[in-house]
Design brief:
The complex is a heterotrimer of chains A (about 350), B (about 120) and C (about 375). Chain A is built from 10 helices and 14 strands. With about 350 residues, chain A is an alpha+beta fold. In chain A, the strands form 3 sheets. In chain A, strands 9-11-7-12-10-13-14 form a 7-stranded mixed sheet. Chain A has a 4-stranded mixed sheet with strand order 1-6-4-5. Chain B is elongated. Chain B is an alpha+beta fold and about 120 residues long. Chain B folds into 2 domains: about 55 residues, SH3 type barrels (Roll); about 45 residues, no CATH class. In chain B, strands 3-2-1-4-5 form a 5-stranded antiparallel sheet, with no helix packed on it. Chain B starts with a strand and ends in a 40-residue tail after the last helix. In chain B, strand 2 and strand 3 form a beta hairpin. In chain C, the strands form 4 sheets. Chain C has a 5-stranded parallel sheet with strand order 2-1-7-8-9. A 4-stranded parallel sheet of chain C has the order 4-3-5-6, sandwiched between helices. Chain C has 2 domains: about 140 residues, HypD, alpha/beta domain 1 (Rossmann fold); about 150 residues, HypD, alpha/beta domain 2 (Rossmann fold). Chain C is built from 14 helices and 13 strands. The longest helix of chain C has 17 residues. Classes of the chains: A alpha+beta (about 350), B alpha+beta (about 120), C alpha/beta (about 375). At the B-C interface, strand 1, strand 4, strand 5 and helix 1 of B face helix 1, helix 2, helix 5, helix 6 and helix 8 of C. Strand 8 of chain A pairs antiparallel with strand 3 of chain B.
Chain lengths: ~350, ~120, ~375
C-alpha cells in the first residue's frame, strides 16, 4: 500500500464538477490517483474496456453499490466495504474474483484526502483479495448530494468446479453453519453515526471471505449446498430467502447463535435482534449432515474462522419459514426485517 | 414502555449525582441518575436503565432469593408457600436492602406488616 | 448478562412451567391479561404461549403506548414535522406508525427533518446544537417514561433552551386497567402487572383491582421466568379464591414506587381531564399534560397543532384487539391488508403491539383453530 501511496500524485485539493466531465481534470484524477493506486496492466492500458483472459465456462458476475454514512468507521470504511462486498458475493457463489470494476459518484467539494484514503483502502482490500480493479468511471454531482461519495463495484470470476451451489440441493437434515459472530457491523455503524450515544469496543467485521469459503469447498466440496453472505438485514433475511426458495423450514437453535458480548449488550440495550443486524464479513452455509462437523473444523483452522459453528438445521413444515427454538422448548418465528432495524424503548 | 436493561455503574460523573457511566457487557453509556437521588448508586451497583435514565437499583439479595426459590420448585410444599410474597416462611431470613436498612425492604409486599395466616392453598 | 440470563435459564423456565401445570385447575379455563406491551413482546419472543397448558389463556392488554395513540395525535405530530424550521424527534418505536397521511419515516422521505432519539435528553441536546431551529420531542409512554420527559423539561428550563418543545402524549396505566375491568364484554380472571411502570408508581395503585373487582394481580418482570412465576402467583390466588396485589419483580420494584420520579412528574405534569385512547375511547384522568410553569416548552401551547380526530381505517379492528376481545389473527385485516410491511394500525408496527408480536413471532397454522 505504501508503494501505491508514493506513486499516487493527485494534488487537486477538492473534487469539482470538472473531475467527472471527462476532460483534463478527469485525466488528472485517473492518472494521478486511480491508476497508480489500483496499478495493474489492464487499467494502465486506459482503453474503453478491460480485456480479460478467462478460461472457464462457468463465470459468476455480481454487482453492488455502497451508500454508507459515515464514510469511515471502526474496523473499516466505504472503500473496503465496496471491494469486500462484491468479492464476498462472488466467494459465496463459489467463484474466485478475477476482476473488479468500480464506479464513483462524488460530491463536488469533497476533500481530495478523503477520496485518496478510500481509493487506497480499496487498493489494499483488492490486494488482500488478490483481485485487480481493471476499469471504472467517475461522475461528480453537485455539492449536497452523494453524502461525500457513493461507490459501486462489479466483479466476476470463474466458479470452482468442485462446488455445486444451488438452493434446490438443500434438503431436510442439512446443517446450518455461521462463519462467526453476528451483528458487529450494524452496531458499529449505529454507534459511528451517533444514532445512539454508546461507547463500545465493537468494530465492523468487514473482510474478504475467500479463504474461509475456499477452505470449506476444499474440505467438503459438493456437500456445501448453498452459501450467502449476510449483509443488510442480517442472517434472518438471507435465511428467510432460503426458506422461500426451498419451501423448507430453517430451524435455528437459540443458544447456538454466536454473538459477541458487547454486540449482545448493545442489542439488548437498543431492543434489537442480532439476527437482523447487518454484517459485512460473515456468511451462512448449508452443509450436508454427514459433512457438517468436518466443515466447521475446516473453517476453524482458517484465521478468522475460529468461531464458526453449527447453529441449526433444515427441516420440513407446512409453511416455509425460519424458526428459533430454545432449550426449554420455546419457539419463535424469525421474520425478514422490514426496513432498517430501529432502536426501541418499548 | 418497558424496555429497561440492568447495567452496572462504572463511573460517577459529577458531584451533583446527575450522571453516571454504566456498563452492559462492555458497552458503556451515560445514564442520568437523578431519579435515584434519594438513594444514589455507588460504583459497582446495578441499576435498571430506561431511555438513558436509571429507574431503580437492582437488589442482589432479592434476585438471589427469587432464583433460589425457583430452583427448589417442585421439591417441598414449604418452598411453594415461600413464593407468596405476602406470607414468607416464618423461618426464612429477611433479606436486607442494598443499603442494609432496617425493617421491611421497600420492595417487599406492602401488606406484609399485616400478616394473614399462611396460605391455605395446595 | 447479569440479571437477565439467570431469568432466561432453561431449567428454571421448565420448572416454573411445571408449577403452572400443577397449580392450574384442569377443570376450568383461565383468562389472564398481561397489561403491558413489553410483556406481550416477551411472551411471543420467548415462545411462552405455546408452552402453557391449553386451559390457561393469555389475553393481550392495551399497555402499548404506541398502539393506543389515536391516529389524530400522530397526524398532529407530523404537522409539526412538516414545518421546515422544525426538527422532529421521537423514539424509534414511533417511526413507522401510520398516521392518516403516512408515518414519520415517510414524512422524512418527503423531506421533513425527522430524527430518532434514544433518550429525551438527546432531543434536548439537538436543540442546544441547533439554536436556529425548533426541536420538538414527541413524548410517548406510560409512567415508566414520563419521569424522563419531566427531568428533560426541568433541564430545558434550567438551561433556558428556548427552541425546545415537548408534544406530550404520556398516559397512565391504572385508568386503562379500570376501563378494561368495567367493559362488560371482557371476562378476565387475573392480571400480570406492568413491571417497569411499577418501578415508578409502585404496587399500591393496583389495589383497586383486588379490592373492588376481586381480581388477582402479580406485578412481573420481563424475562420468561418472571412472567411464568407471576402466572403461578395469580393461579395460586385463583385456586384459593383470594385476590390481592403481589409483586414478583421484587428485585427492582419498590412497593411504594420511586418518590423522586413521582416528585418530578408532579412538578412538571398535571392530569388531563380525559384523553382519547385508540380502542378504549375517552378515558378520564388517564393522561398527562405539561403544567403552565413549563408552558414555554409545551408544544400544545406554543405551536399550532391541528387537533384533528381521525377514525381508525375501515375494517381495522384495532380497538377489539387492544381490549383483548379479539386475538390478532382474528382481525379481518390481519396478515392480509395489514402486515408489518404495510401496517394499517399501530398494533402491527409497534414492537409491543399484539399484532406485530403475533405476526413476527407467533404465526402458526394452529392459530386458525379457535381455543375452546
Amino acid at each position: 500500500m505504501s508503494l501505491a501511496n508514493t506513486q499516487v500524485h493527485f494534488r487537486d485539493k477538492q473534487i469539482q464538477m470538472a473531475h467527472g466531465a471527462g476532460g483534463e481534470a478527469s485525466r488528472r484524477l485517473v492518472e494521478g490517483l486511480f491508476e497508480p493506486a489500483f496499478s495493474n496492466p489492464q487499467l494502465s492500458a486506459l482503453s474503453d474496456a478491460a480485456v480479460l483472459d478467462l478460461i472457464s465456462n462457468r463465470v459468476a458476475i455480481s454487482t453492488d453499490c455502497f451508500v454508507v454514512r459515515p464514510l469511515r468507521f471502526p474496523g473499516g470504511s466505504i472503500g473496503e466495504l465496496a471491494v469486500n462486498g462484491t468479492v464476498n458475493d462472488l466467494a459465496v457463489s463459489g467463484a474466485t474474483p478475477a476482476a473488479l470494476t468500480v464506479t464513483f459518484i462524488l460530491e463536488a467539494g469533497l476533500d481530495s484526502d478523503v477520496l485518496r484514503q478510500e481509493v487506497l483502502a480499496m487498493a489494499e482490500a483488492a490486494r488482500r483479495a488478490n483481485v485487480p480493479i481493471v476499469a471504472g468511471d467517475t461522475k461528480v454531482v453537485e455539492h449536497g448530494k452523494a453524502d461525500g461519495m457513493y461507490i459501486s463495484t462489479t466483479g466476476l470470476g470463474p466458479v470452482d468446479a468442485r462446488s455445486e451451489l444451488n438452493p434446490q440441493r438443500v434438503q431436510p437434515g442439512d446443517q446450518v453453519i455461521f462463519s462467526g459472530p453476528i451483528g458487529a457491523h450494524g452496531i458499529t455503524i449505529m454507534i459511528a453515526r451517533h444514532d445512539v450515544e454508546l461507547e463500545a469496543d465493537i468494530q465492523s467485521d468487514t473482510r474478504p471471505l475467500l479463504s474461509l469459503v475456499g477452505a470449506l469447498i476444499e474440505q467438503v466440496g459438493r456437500d456445501v449446498r448453498w452459501m450467502r453472505d449476510a449483509t443488510r438485514g442480517g442472517v434472518a433475511t438471507v435465511l428467510n430467502e432460503l426458506a422461500r426458495d426451498t419451501k423448507l423450514v430453517v430451524e435455528l437453535i437459540e443458544e447456538s447463535i454466536p454473538v459477541d458480548d458487547a454486540v449482545r449488550g448493545a442489542c439488548e440495550l437498543l431492543g434489537l435482534d442480532p439476527l437482523h443486524v447487518a454484517n459485512e464479513g460473515q456468511f451462512v452455509a448449508i452443509v450436508s449432515n454427514e459433512k457438517a462437523s468436518q466443515a466447521v473444523d475446516a473453517l476453524r483452522r482458517v484465521p478468522g474462522g475460529e468461531q464458526a459453528c453449527i447453529v441449526g438445521q433444515i427441516g420440513e413444515g407446512r409453511v416455509p419459514r425460519v424458526v428459533a427454538k430454545a432449550a426449554y422448548g420455546g419457539t419463535r418465528i424469525v421474520d425478514t426485517l422490514i426496513g432498517d432495524p430501529l432502536p426501541r424503548i418499548c | 414502555m418497558c424496555l429497561a436493561i440492568p447495567a452496572q455503574v462504572s463511573e460517577l460523573l459529577d458531584d451533583q449525582q446527575r450522571f453516571a457511566m454504566v456498563d452492559i457487557m462492555g458497552v458503556r453509556c451515560r445514564a442520568n441518575i437523578e431519579l435515584l437521588i434519594d438513594d444514589p448508586p455507588n460504583l459497582g451497583d446495578w441499576v435498571l436503565i430506561h431511555v438513558g435514565f436509571a429507574m431503580s437499583k437492582i437488589s442482589a439479595e432479592y434476585a438471589e432469593e427469587q432464583l433460589e426459590l425457583l430452583r427448589l420448585l417442585g421439591e417441598t410444599v414449604e418452598v411453594m408457600d415461600d413464593m407468596t410474597t405476602e406470607n414468607p416462611h416464618p423461618d426464612a431470613p429477611r433479606p436486607t436492602s442494598p443499603r442494609g436498612g432496617e425493617g421491611d425492604h421497600p420492595n417487599a409486599n406492602g401488606e406484609s406488616r399485616e400478616r394473614s395466616a399462611p396460605g391455605a392453598t395446595q | 448478562m447479569k440479571y437477565v440470563d439467570e431469568f432466561r435459564d432453561a431449567a428454571l423456565i421448565t420448572k416454573t412451567l411445571a408449577e403452572i401445570r400443577k397449580v392450574a385447575d384442569g377443570q376450568r379455563n383461565y383468562r389472564i391479561m398481561e397489561v403491558c406491551g413489553g410483556h406481550t413482546h416477551s411472551i411471543f419472543r420467548f415462545g411462552l404461549k405455546d408452552l402453557l397448558p391449553v386451559n390457561v389463556e393469555l389475553i393481550h392488554g392495551p399497555g402499548c403506548p404506541v398502539c393506543v395513540l389515536p391516529m389524530g395525535r400522530i397526524d398532529d405530530g407530523l404537522e409539526l414535522a412538516n414545518d421546515p424550521s422544525v426538527i422532529f424527534t421521537a423514539f424509534g418505536d414511533m417511526m413507522r406508525v401510520p398516521g392518516s397521511k403516512g408515518s414519520p419515516l415517510e414524512s422524512k422521505a418527503r423531506g421533513a427533518d425527522v430524527r430518532i432519539v434514544y433518550s429525551p435528553l438527546d432531543a434536548l441536546k439537538i436543540a442546544q446544537e441547533n439554536p436556529d431551529r425548533k426541536v420538538v420531542f414527541f413524548a410517548i409512554g406510560f409512567e415508566t417514561t414520563a419521569p424522563s420527559t419531566a427531568l428533560t423539561l426541568m433541564r430545558a428550563k434550567e438551561l433556558a433552551v428556548d427552541n425546545f418543545a415537548v408534544f406530550c402524549n404520556h398516559i397512565t396505566i391504572a385508568p386503562a386497567i379500570q376501563a378494561i375491568l368495567d367493559d362488560p364484554e371482557m371476562k378476565l380472571d387475573a392480571f400480570i402487572g406492568p413491571g417497569h411502570v411499577s418501578t415508578v408508581i409502585g404496587c399500591r395503585p393496583y389495589e383497586f383491582i383486588a379490592r373492588d373487582y376481586h381480581c388477582p394481580i402479580a406485578v412481573a418482570g420481563f424475562e420468561p421466568v418472571d412472567i411464568l412465576e407471576a402466572m403461578v402467583m395469580v393461579l395460586r390466588q385463583l385456586r384459593s379464591g383470594e385476590a390481592k396485589v403481589e409483586t414478583q419483580y421484587k428485585r427492582v420494584v419498590p412497593w411504594d414506587g420511586n418518590p423522586a420520579a413521582l416528585r418530578v412528574m408532579a412538578e412538571v405534569f398535571e392530569e388531563r381531564p380525559h384523553f382519547e385512547w385508540r380502542g378504549l375511547g375517552s378515558i378520564p384522568r388517564s393522561a398527562l399534560a405539561i403544567r403552565s410553569e413549563f408552558g414555554a416548552w409545551d408544544a400544545e401551547r406554543t405551536m399550532s397543532i391541528p387537533g384533528v380526530q381521525i377514525a381508525d381505517p375501515d375494517g381495522a379492528q384495532c380497538g377489539e384487539v387492544l381490549r383483548g376481545l379479539l386475538k390478532p389473527h382474528e382481525c379481518r385485516l390481519f396478515g392480509k391488508e395489514c402486515n408489518p410491511e404495510r401496517p394499517i394500525g399501530a398494533l402491527m408496527v409497534s414492537s409491543e403491539g399484539a399484532c406485530a408480536a403475533h405476526y413476527k413471532y407467533g404465526r402458526r397454522e394452529e392459530d386458525l383453530v379457535t381455543l375452546q
